Amino acid sequence: MLQTLIASATVGAGGAASIDFNSIPQTFTDLTVVVSGRSESATTTAVLNMRFNGLSTGIYTIRQLRGSGAAVSSSATSSTSFDGGDCIPGSSSTGSVFANVQYVIPNYTQTTDHKTIILEGVAEGNISSTVNVVSSTGRSASNLAVSSITLLTSSNWAQYSTAYLYGTLKGSGGATVS
Q: pLDDT digits over 35-58, tens only?
């Protein structure tokens, strides 16, 4: 699987309310979004959310597994954005600690069915028992091709947070597709 960098973003001084990837080309089969992020939230961890095509309406169905230093839990929810869980360090967590999160959105250009979303995320550092390792899967209720992605936290993104958008073509790693 050969991934092509489509776009990248780095949050500057003063933070940012969102990280946006607009005008996503429709020439790939799958998308991968990689985030190294931190929130300006006053909490230890902040919730990570993703929306397609600038829509804040519609329903995302989410199944989530979470593990921390103290417990393991799971949930099944619906939301107006894809809730990636509380895996982004906030301003009261260990200084200079960033989360690592990866989204995979297969078959993002199809227009006949809902979009599947897969998330894996973990916060680095020593944040006591509130550190979360999150694994989520879900789908959007929209059957529109994904042309833009918005990443949000429960507060602003902190300076130096970065996000990368990659496109993947099936069979691009030298494999034969039949």
A: 999 888 877 777 788 899 987 777
